Every structure is written in C-alpha cells, then in structure tokens.
Amino acid sequence: MIDLHMHTIYSDGTNTCTEILKKSESKKLEIISITDHNTCKAYEELTKPEIRNSFNGKIIRGIELNTKILGIPIEILGYNVNTKYINENISKLYISNKERNIIEVKKIYEICLKNNIDVGNDFIENYDPNMYASKYLHQIITKNESNKKYIDEESWKNSNVFYRKYMSNPDTLFFVNIDNILPEFDEACKLVKNAGGLVFVPHIFEYRENSEKILKDIIENHKIDGIECFYTTFSKEQTKFLLDLCDKNHYFISGGSDYHGSFKPDVEMAIGFGNLKIEKKIINDWIEQVTLI
C-alpha cells in the first residue's frame, strides 16, 4: 500500500516528520509522499539519517500548492520536485500563511458587517493568525444558533466542508475573493515544472458544486500530468469516473488519504475513513520517472 498525500507540522498537519515516518512504517507502507502546503521544509529533516531511518519504505518528494482557477481557490500536487529549489523560490510566488490568514480574516469581517452577521466587534483583534481564517469564522458563527440560516447542516458541523462549500464558492455569501492572494493555476504549475516535478490535480470532488467546471477548464485549457483518483471522500463511482478519465486523456494516477493528524481526526493515514486501499501498482506508469529517497 502507498499514501501520496499527507501533511506535517510544517503546514497544517499535527504530526512531526519523524512521527509521519514512524506511522508509515507501522502501517508497512511501501511508498509515501509528504505534501505540505506551499513548503518542502519537511524534506530538510529527511537529510538526517536518524529521522529518515524511521521508515524503511521509499519516499517521493512532494508538495501541495494553493492556487486558483476561474477565480476559485483550489490546490495542485507536485511530485518529484527539487525541494531545495522549491524552498528557495516559493516566496516569489506566495505570501506566508499568516499573511494570507490575516488578509482573509479582514475580508471576512467586511462581508459579515455588510450582511449584518454578528461576529463581535473584536473579531479581528481576537484572531490568532496561526489558525486558518475559515476555521476561525466557522468557530465564531457556530456559537450563535441564529446563524444556521446562512449555511447548511453539513457545513455547520464541519469547518472543512464550510470552507469548500461557502468560502471557496463564488455563488455564496461567504465567498472570499483571493485574486490578490493566490497565484493562477498555470503559475503554480510552472513552479512545479521548474522544480523538475509532475503536476497532479488532487481531490477534485472536494470542490463540490464547482468540481465539474474546474475539471473541464483544466482539461481543455491547461497541461497536467495526472489526477488523484483515490481519495478519502471519494465514492467508488467517483473513483471509477476519474480512472476512466485518466485512461482517456493519458493522465497518470495517484492516490492519498490527505492525512493531517488530529486536525482531521476522522482521516487515518493510508485508509482515510477506512475506505481506502491504495495499491502500489496504480503508479506503475510514472514511478520510473521519479527519484525515490
């Protein structure tokens, strides 16, 4: 089994690099990839034998980059990237997570004021920029039952769903315009390519109502190498649809749990909600193109 999508404390995970490797070893994974958001700092630790030796399997150098397409925030995965190149050049394309969070919180506050949504006069002052803006807003609005009229039940219970269905959806009240925050899709892809990597589209159905038009635009107007076909929230029908799409368009296939540790407590490494079993053979078409460490 393999897992090519997981996060450490260097982005929004709760496990250290060592903990990720030890957990991967305990699950007897053959190949993994650490794909932190907008950084490859975890790979600096992997140069230390005392850390790398925690895992007997192989590792594909990876990253997950935040980007946008059609004005909608999405992500791409980069595999086989030169991590030193990424770490040296990432600041040319991205502001820090803290800076982005602060900008988003200010935009959110303006939206709430405009629509008479009570989030308190000290909404900005009480914000910890180490927390995702979406998680903070969700935390505040769900304290008041009267705010249930603004979002559906699924989003009320889950901040990740709230982010995808509302803050990332241009057709909703809580949409946060990120035109001045995130690079365009092709710019993010160029960073991966300049680092010698392969570009994959992850968790496409997580974009909910916008999934179809995002996927259509990518296929028709942009160049990618592959698609993440096996993912924690995907149904069997969705996975089959993506596998057929990859076959038709000659895309590579990947799969991952999107493990974040306690940040996503229901998602376990390698098995997701318990529904995943990502076999090594799915990457047979491109494994020879990458350097395993």
Task: Please write out the topology.
Blueprint: E1 2-6, H1 17-26, E2 31-34, H2 42-45, H3 49-52, E3 58-59, E4 62-69, E5 72-79, H4 83-89, H5 97-114, H6 133-141, H7 153-157, H8 159-167, H9 185-194, E6 198-201, H10 211-221, E7 226-231, H11 236-249, E8 252-256
Parallel strand pairs: 1-2, 2-3, 6-7, 7-8
Antiparallel strand pairs: 4-5, 5-6
Helix pairs in contact: 5-6, 6-8
Task: Describe this entry's structure for a reader.
The structure is a single chain. The protein is α/β, with parallel strands linked by helices. The protein has helices at residues 17-26, 42-45, 49-52, 83-89, 97-114, 133-141, 153-157, 159-167, 185-194, 211-221, 236-249, and strands at 2-6, 31-34, 58-59, 62-69, 72-79, 198-201, 226-231, 252-256. α5 runs parallel beside α6 (133-141) and α6 crosses α8. It is globular, with a radius of gyration of 19 Å. The two termini are 17 Å apart. The mean pLDDT is 95.
Summary, kept brief:
α5 packs parallel to α6 and α6 crosses α8.
Q: What is the succession of H and E elements?
A: EHEHHEEEHHHHHHEHEHE
Helix content class: 25-40%
Order of the strands making up the biggest sheet? 4-5-6-7-8
How far apart are the termini?
A: 17 Å
Q: What are its keywords?
A:
8 strands, globular, 11 helices, three-stranded parallel beta sheet, single chain, five-stranded mixed beta sheet, alpha/beta, 293 residues
